[in-house]
Write a structure and sequence with these properties.
Number of strands: 2
Order of helices and strands: HHHEEH
Shape: globular
CATH architecture: Orthogonal Bundle
Strand content: 5-15%
Strand order of the largest sheet: 1-2
Number of domains: 1
Structural class: mainly alpha
Number of helices: 4
Oligomer: single chain
Distance between the termini: 26 Å
Radius of gyration: 13 Å
CATH class: Mainly Alpha
């Protein structure tokens, strides 16, 4: 199994997000609750086994990298995860860059 080459991330390099974490954070671009399955699909290309609780582990590390920048991922019981309102405002320019890059690629 080969790992896909990482696309350029719109998120700052100072956040030190790996490609998997950037893909997970990109799932939050639409203003909605992100289901577990969507995050699982985002990390699936990087997985080499089905043991353990990889989504929870990767989400833990992603949250740890984002908290110093005032960005919080909140659990929504029975539905998935969403960004706090202030986090959505902070990430708006990065999501706009992400949308522009996707539109350009299409």
């Amino acid at each position: 199994m080969t790992v896909p080459s990482p696309a350029p991330s719109p998120f700052p390099r100072t956040w030190k997000l790996n490609p998997r974490e950037a893909a997970m954070l990109a799932c939050f671009a639409p203003d909605s609750t992100v289901p577990h399955a969507a995050l699982e699909a985002a990390i699936a290309p990087y997985r080499f086994g089905a043991t353990g609780r990889p989504l929870k582990v990767h989400l833990h590390y992603l949250r740890g990298k984002l908290v110093p920048h005032g960005i919080r991922i909140v659990s929504v019981h029975g539905e998935g995860f969403c960004l706090s309102p202030e986090s959505r405002v902070a990430l708006a320019p990065f999501f706009a860059a992400l949308d522009a890059a996707c539109a350009q690629a299409a």
